Amino acid sequence: MHNEIKTYDxxxxxxxxxxxxxxxxxxxxxxxxxxxxxxDHPHRHNYFTIIxxxxxxxxxHIIDFKEYPLNGPSxxxxxxxxxxxxxxETSPKGYVLNFSRTFLMKNGIxxxxxxxxxxxxxxxxxxxxxxxxEQLTVFSDIxxxxxxxxxxxxxxxxxxxxxxxxxFIINISGACSLSKLNTExxxxxxxxxRDFKKLIESNYQQSHKVQDYAEQLAVSADYLxxxxxxxxxxxxxxxxxxxLMIEAKRLLLFTExxxxxxxxxxxxxxxxxxxxxxKKVSGFSPIAFRQEVRQ
Length: 295
Prior knowledge:
Pfam families: HTH_18 (PF12833)
Number of domains: 2
Number of helices: 13
Shape: globular
Radius of gyration: 20 Å
Strand order of the largest sheet: 2-9-4-7-10
Organism: Carboxylicivirga sediminis
GO molecular function, one term: sequence-specific DNA binding
Mean pLDDT: 84
Keywords: DNA-binding, Transcription, Transcription regulation
Protein name: Helix-turn-helix domain-containing protein
């Protein structure tokens, strides 16, 4: 029986709440050995995760139903709410950074600094960023400084960790494959994409039409469709559909909602409309998809 997917809070080993923590992947891997019940299963967090993989351990990182092979040094982003699973038979060398939105706010780190990395990606599309040896040296040095402050007694250690995290993310933004577009990030046109994606995140259950979003953004539906497609290769309509599909797949795999209940949860007026939408986009009926992937 597949139950509700687990959502984890950011806590210390004693269960106390915390806003920032860094661990080595080797330590995490060692903790899981001999405990099959603790092996990595699909799950999600209510906080941000950045994984720095320093070597080539083999295996895959699955984020929102997409598999990304572990093919050398790379950086992986997992946003709050994304379903992910990290699978490797051997202990990878690297680090895991976990931090909350509160930590970002306290240290003056805007969400937009992170959003730059995947500004033009559709929902659920979070490929790891490969890094070369020079970049890896920079990232690893920042990580080691973080460890020193985390383990030390400096009164301002959390401020130092915040500054180092901001520097880490700035380096990611500068090194990512989309860096040539980052210079335009703060222009009005790119704010349009950012605002459009934020609106989808908060309104996808109520609004399925491009026109609904265009009105809130004070542009025409035709302009929104054309501009989003010119920048991303996908239309505004496809962005809305991608968000609905990601949420539908999560509900199908990790809850026992019926097709009717699921359709209403996602804002479809009739279950038949949801069934037709899901089959058109995925090639499967919702129930067939649930059965196929669970097997």
